[in-house]
Amino acid sequence: MSLTHLKLTRIAATVGLAIAAAACTQQETTKAPAPAVTEAAKPTVAEAKAFIQNAEAELAALSLESNRAEWIYSNFITEDTASLSAAVAEKVTAASVRFANEAARFVDLPLDADDARKLNLLRSALVLPAPLDPAKNAELAKISSELNGLYGKGKYCLKDGRCLTQPELSALMAESRDPELLKEVWAGWREIAKPMRPLFEREVELANEGARDLGYPSLSELWRSQYDMAPNDFSAELDRLWGQVKPLYESLHCYVRGELNQQYGDEVAPKTGAIPAHLLGNMWAQQWGNIYPMLAPKDADPGYDVTELLAKQGYDEQKMVKQAENFFTSLGFDALPDTFWQRSLFVQPKDRDVICHASAWDLDNADDIRIKMCIQKTGDDFKVIHHELGHNFYQRAYKNQPYIFKGSANDGFHEAIGDTIALSITPKYLQQIGLLDQVPDASKDIGLLLRQALDKVAFLPFGLMIDQWRWKVFSGEIKPEQYNQAWWELRQKYQGVMAPVERSEADFDPGAKYHVPGNVPYTRYFLAHILQFQFHKALCDIAKDEGPVHRCSIYGNKDAGAKLNAMLEMGLSKPWPQALAVVTGREQMDASAVLDYFAPLKSWLDEQNNAANRQCGW
Ligand code: X8Z
Ligand code: ZN
Fold it and tell me: Which InterPro entries match (predicted)?
């Protein structure tokens, strides 16, 4: 995994490693609980400083080794590379856990703010802590690597004989409108996850023991301790943010369910209750933009499709990445280094297994940044490329921070930057770069907003529910024999979607989503889907854009770029509210920016739902 120790080197995929990026503070509430510390000789401030320096140097050195091993493993999945990557992961975890424990000795000393923050990060910025017992550490590293491999190698052979990988199956889900085929693909992909169940169960057991060794009740508290506030306060923050956007989601859900019912009929798509998850254009029903053409408002469809525009202009994978880089350089960021172009993976290799799930990497904690992505030439992947480059430009912006502060303000920030830029891929921007001839007029805004909401608003409950499930698994509230049932209860509760075919505890549907076998925390994406609208609004203000915020593009605006860079450069050196304030002037995460952006759509959806006399909710 990415060792990335306190920072995430490989952002998308935190493979099983021990530590990941996170933010913690000096406040009492955020600190790791004090483990039993033996009353040895009282340490001094000088000793604490020496400890931090040494830990930082050792972790930085280990990260280089681990990043390389992980990169090779994810690009060439074999038994040998799995074993090598697990061996390095084991070393990194052992060192991280050792430092986390030793750090506890120094917590009561009067340290300066930076050192206190570093110490706290050393104690709490782990996502897969191993028990102190070396045999268990080795076991955990092996399991983590195996789980990743199972996902990366996953394939499903269709009834017609074609054996397809994840990106190919996802493309089918995006395009097909045949409910039987969709059902087959949906259920077929989930077969890959069944063998993960015992591994995942053991992984949770071991990592919980690791968390307890560090003084946390379970891994749940450790994961929730990484936001500069007490774990329960963080959970309450999430509830607050979800409460802000839930009415908007319900309006969208209601409209989509009604339209699907009209097109597929009662048998396939019932008028009431949860929506069958195979009909939403996405393997996990997490973003619904692919079914926009089925739902497009008759008089307000902007009438273009980015996938087609890219094809018409002859964009290949490399050109898509170049165009995305160009957005960042237009804001004043330096171009990507030559090594990025030489070493990144853009196209799925035909002759070997790789982890296709898109990720951004920082191999040397400085300039050797890369992406690894099996790019499809679609409008969706054009956006994902911006997402990944957002990680890379963030990584490079904080490269001069000390190692422990090389990370984002909180993990939601890392996920939000590229998406913020992608919100500027407006019709006007597409015209500026020669992809679109004519900018549709304001009468087409509802179509634009609906397309955007199907991805961004539909994602919100999904972004939230994954870790609601995992935290309960970690705390023991969800037992192994309830894994799948509890998963579907949460899918139903938050998203209002349901499995299209019977599920049982022989299935392990969470494992069919990359971040579960990959052990990547997921709440970061929920946060990112709020934060990106706050950032976009603030940057549009800085750019003095006067139109509606959904038509604003900050392309080419150096003032907006400079402000963004000022926040990125801070890395994880300060509590996240301070970083947020640099761009937005406010220290609170706030979903009003989401509501403002979609306000015209919300009124329109409510009108449609009323006119059709729909009973909303599920
Ligand atoms: O995993 C990702 C990125 C890499 S960090 C491609 N995302 C989440 C997902 O695919 O589930 C971006 C949006 C949500
Ligand atoms: Zn990401």
Answer: Peptidase_M2
Site to substitute for ligand 1 among 170, 387, 391, 467, most atoms within 8 A of C-beta: 387
The predicted pLDDT at position 15 comes to 31
Whole-model pTM?
Answer: 0.95
| 483-490 vs 445-475: helix crossing angle, rounded to 10 | 150
Q: Which long-range contacts (CB under 8 A, 24 or more apart) does 165-171 make?
A: 165/348, 165/356, 165/374, 166/283, 166/356, 166/357, 167/348, 167/356, 167/374, 167/376, 169/283, 170/282, 170/283, 171/376, 171/378
Nearest residue (by CA) to ligand 1, atom 8, is 525
- Cα(268)–Cα(276) distance, rounded to whole angstroms? 8
Instruction: Flag whether 396 is in a domain.
Output: yes
Q: Considering the domain boundaries, does residue 114 fall inside one?
A: yes
Strands 369-372 and 497-498: unpaired
- Strand 497-498 and strand 275-276: pairing? parallel
Question: What is the maximum alpha-carbon separation in the chain?
Answer: 76
5 a known binding residue? no
151 is in an annotated binding site: no
Tokens found for residue 12: 């998308």
Q: What is the pLDDT of residues 462-519, one digit of tens each?
A: 999 999 999 999 999 999 999 999 999 999 999 999 999 999 999 999 999 999 999 9
Query: Residues enclosing ligand 1, CB less than 6 A?
Result: 11-12, 286, 358-359, 384, 387, 525
Q: Are 493 and 275 in contact (CB under 8 A)?
A: no
In this structure, what token pair is assigned to residue 527? 């946060």
Q: How many domains does the chain have?
A: 2
Q: Which residues form the domain of 314?
A: 305-439
Asked whether residue 125 is domain-assigned, the answer is yes
Domain boundary among 379, 404, 439: 439
Rounded distance between C-alpha atoms, residue 531 and residue 576, angstroms: 12
Summarize pLDDT for 359-386 with one digit per residue, the tens: 999 999 999 999 999 999 999 999 999 9
pLDDT at 539 over 50: yes
The neighbouring-strand residues paired with 330 are none
How far is the CA of 121 from the CAs of 25, 117, 463, in angstroms?
8, 6, 25
Residue 554 lies in a domain: no
Q: Which residue has the tokens 């505890």?
A: 505
Q: How confident is the model at residue 41 (pLDDT cuts 50, 70, 90)?
A: confident
Ligand 1 closest atom vs CA 373? 6
Query: 68, 363 in Cβ contact below 8 A?
Result: yes
Question: What are the tokens at 175?
Answer: 């395009």
Nearest-ligand number for the alpha carbon of 522? 1
Atom of ligand 1 nearest to the CA of 284: 11
CB neighbour class for 38 (10 Å; exposed up to 12, middle 13-18, buried from 19): exposed
388 is catalytic: yes
387 carries a ligand binding annotation: yes
